[in-house]
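new request in #modeling-help
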Amino acid sequence: MSTTIVQNKEYRNKQKRKDNFISAFIGFFAFVWIFPILWTVWTSLRPYNDIISYGVFSWPRHLNLNNYFHAFQVMGLTHYFLNTLYVTVPAVVLTLFLGSLIAFVVSRYSFRFNLSLLLLFTAGNMLPIVLTYIPVFWLYIKIGDLFGNRSLLYNNYLGIVLVHVAFQVGFATFVLSSYMKTVPKEISESAIIDGCSVFRHYWNVMLPLLRPPLAALGVLMSCWIYNDFFWALILMSQDSKRPVTSALRQLQGQYVTDFNLLAAGASIVAAPTIILFLVLRKQFVSGLTLGSTKG
Amino acid sequence: MKTAAVNKKVRSRRSLSRNDRLTLAAFIGIPTLMQIIFLWLPALITIVLSFTYWNGINVSDIKWAGLANYKNIFFGTPVFYDALKNNIIWLLWFTFLATPLGILLAYQIDRKIKGHKIYETIFYIPVVLSLAIIGIIWNFMLQPGGFVQGVMGRDIGNAVSIWGNYSINTYVIMGVASWRHIGYIMLLYLAGLKSVDPSLREASAIDGATEWQTFRKIVLPTMRPVNIIIVVITIIESLRAFDLVYIIYGTSTAWPLLNILVFQNFAGQGISMKGAAYAVILLVLCIGPILLYLRNVFKEDLK
């Protein structure tokens, strides 16, 4: 009896030492991981002239937030942030709304095409997106010409919103429908017996129950759409209408010599998603979990 | 009892009023129509266009090309094979290095080793950054005046080119790509690990299994559904890899990938339907993993 306890203790001690070693090892790794970001922030706090005259590793003579003020003034970041807002907010809201409609019907009413519908949406989310570039570009111009306004979709926020929605709605549908399967059917049955219309069944009964996955998806998709810059490169002909991530890419070429300013710009643009992640980490994780580990 | 249930089902379907049916039709119709118009239809059009010659401007200029674009790619475009090679390098690197590292990391963090909360956060941060920002951040590390140049003792004046050095840029690109991928895999796996019954692991530890044995014999098999998804994600991400390289090299073919070639033919000097053919080749390569994913996810429903 006593020997097993001693053995156990020995085993635990050994395990503890091993764990400490592993922790230190991962800690080193983690430092390497975060270092490029820290370095960028560090660079953003220094004036360009310091590096030019004293070298990369010189002790900082001046540390201040001037680059940040400049980034807002010179680069006009506020303007581009607003552009991002015009795209991200409607795109996320519309994606969640449309996704919840399909998920609701598929999980609450039985049609012959339920599964095909779900497959259509889920597979759509996995298509290589380049497959759609040329036709979407061309379609946008044609639809615009049809309505006598070429920039109805092309070079317009609406156009970017629509492609984001079309691409992301598959993921939303998939996540929401698998969540809805866990909501007891009895709730719906009693709603139907009480004579609820389909719309009220959706709006007053199901939608409130969907708040947790909607929040998770909302956070995840805001981040994805905020980060995207390719659609804007293809579908926005005017630089001034581009979202902040595309603009940053443009500014990279423009201010390539003043990389302290650029570092400040990059830090500012990175801040929203990092803060979003740090504050709403639970939503982030549950969004990914709902989307990936079902089954 | 059974007939009552059947009756009830029939009744509930019958009892849908005209308005309800219209609502349902709209609920399904609007999103589906959008999905078809802006996603599936363009995808199909691209497949058709890959068999034509077209400059992307006037529809009347579209000329049937048969397999000419594909023949041109397979037999007349050596850069296609370079791109394929790079995609395969990407795939191998992710499969044998980045993904396993992400999984091991998740496993250790899930054991709640010291500092696991901070580690989890740090490893995930690169995943929430836009590629536009990642490009800039890594330029600060690698470009003239950057950190790595400083470590090598090179100032702005006598800096060496890292992106342009063909003996090392593959490793650098893979490193930066892993910087993002490992955190992503870690978080996905971590989420899955939460569902593994902890008593299973305790039992195996008491039985004297080593950490590695527990991981291989207990954790990995119980995580089968997640494993499949991670394999699929790794393959698809490697095949459609693009943004990072685009950020560094633009549409030049300094370090070609299939997706870069698509973009080059769509956005470069002139639009050529060779780009469409590249996109279709990419699609064909992706179909296997996509089907595997769908089968895995809709296993029960398909029965």
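bot summary: The mean pLDDT of chain A is 86.
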